Amino acid sequence: MSKFNHWLLVPGFILITIIASCGYNLKGRGSSLPEHIKNIYVPGFQNDSIRYGLEAAVTEGVKKKIVNFGYKIVKDRSLADAELIGTVMNYQTIPENLDRAAKVQTLRIVITLKVVFLDLQKKRTLYENLGFNSPPVSFTVSDDPQERTRNEDEKIDESVEALADQLIQEIFTGF
Predict the structure, then answer these.
(1) N or C: which end of the chain has fewer CB within 10 A?
(2) ∠51-57-44 over CA atoms, to 5°?
(3) Could you give the CA distance from residue 163 to residue 132 in angstroms, rounded to a whole number?
(4) Quick one: DSSP state of residue 144?
(5) Distance of alpha carbon 143 from alpha carbon 155, whole angstroms
(6) What separation, in Å, do the N-terminal and C-terminal C-alpha atoms of the chain show?
(7) Element (DSSP H or E) covering residue 150
(8) 29-173: CATH homologous superfamily?
(9) For the segment 68-127, what is each residue's pLDDT rounded down to a tens digit?
C-alpha cells in the first residue's frame, strides 16, 4: 500500500486562498461598487478636443453602459448616490499603415478622457483617471474625402462604444 503525501495538497490550498482573496468582489449586479450606490448622475462630458460633438456621443455611450450594469441614471444630482464627471481631452488619428510611397492607408483613432467617479454619500473619490485612452480602432483612408469622412465617423461610433464599455468595466469591476 502506497503512502499518500499530504504535502502535495499544500500548493492547491495556497492557490485557492490566493484566488479567493484576489479582490474580485462582484456583488449582485456584477459590480464591486459600494452597495449603497444605485442612482448615478452623469452630467454631459466636456469637450476639450478638436472633434466637434464627441462629448455628446461619449456621454450617451457611458450612460448606456451604466444602465446595462443595472444602475439608474438620474437627471438631478441631489437624487444621486454617485457622480461620473468626464472630459474628452483629446481626439487624434494616428497613421497606422503606409504604402510604399509613404501614403497613409489606415489611421487609428485615439480618444483620451479625464474621468472622476465620486461617491456622493461618503464624499470620496472611487475612481480617477486623467488619461483614459480608447481601445484601438482603425479605419481605411480613402482618396474620396466624403468616403474618408464616412469611414472615420463609423469608426468613431465603434471607438466610443468600446471606450464606454472599457471605462465602465474598469470603474465598476476594477478590471
Answers:
(1) N
(2) 95
(3) 9
(4) S
(5) 17
(6) 48
(7) helix 145-173
(8) Lipoprotein like domain (3.30.160.150)
(9) 999 999 999 999 999 999 999 999 999 999 999 999 999 999 999 999 999 999 999 999
